[in-house]
Amino acid sequence: MRCVKTFLLLILAFAACTAVTILPQRLVFAQGESYTFYCGNTSSDCKIVTAVSNAALYKLTLNDICGESTTYPDLDAAAFISSVNGEIIFTEELSDSVNYYCKADLPFSVILYGTEINLHICVKQCGVTVASPIIFGGY
């Protein structure tokens, strides 16, 4: 009986240590309609993995995450930038979108045109995508 109790205590201790290690790995953004993880070292070898639900749990199964993004039906870009202590570095206007490239208090970054960028916001009529460091792939 004593061996069983000791074994159970060891399992509980292992579970507690595992929880302390895994649980702090939160999402960078509140999950929107979908959540995308960028895995790899650079944009050239970036694997794009999208979760439509339970992104925080899905994140636990991934390695080499180098960025994250999510899409919202709408978003006040100025308020969002302010909420992450962001600063717009440059803006890009395309025929179907406006893109904001920013410095902010976010974990991932890339160098664009000689400047560190770690927040990219793409505003379209159909929704807003936010990413750290930038939106890889297409937008």
Please state the structural category. Answer: alpha+beta
- Morphology call: elongated
Radius of gyration, in angstroms, nearest whole number: 19 Å
Strand content: 35-45%
Order of helices and strands: HEEHEHEEEEEE
Q: For the record, give the distance between the C-alpha atoms at the N and C termini, rounded to a whole number.
A: 60 Å
Q: Can you give the mean pLDDT?
A: 86
Order of neighbouring strands in the sheet with most strands: 2-1-3-9-8-5-4
**Total beta strand runs:** 9
Instruction: Report the helical percentage.
Output: 10-25%
Contiguous runs where pLDDT drops below 50 for at least 5 residues: 15-24
Largest sheet: 7 strands, antiparallel
- Note the total helix count: 3
Summary?
This protein has 139 residues and is α+β, with helices and mostly antiparallel strands. Helix content is 24%, strand content 37%. It starts with a helix and ends in a 7-residue tail after the last strand.
What can you tell me about this protein's structure?
- The protein contains 3 helices and 9 strands; from the N terminus they run αββαβαββββββ.
- Strand 8 and strand 9 form a beta hairpin.
- It is elongated, with a radius of gyration of 19 Å.
- Strands 2-1-3-9-8-5-4 form a 7-stranded antiparallel β-sheet. Strands 6-7 form a two-stranded antiparallel sheet.
- The chain is of the alpha+beta class.
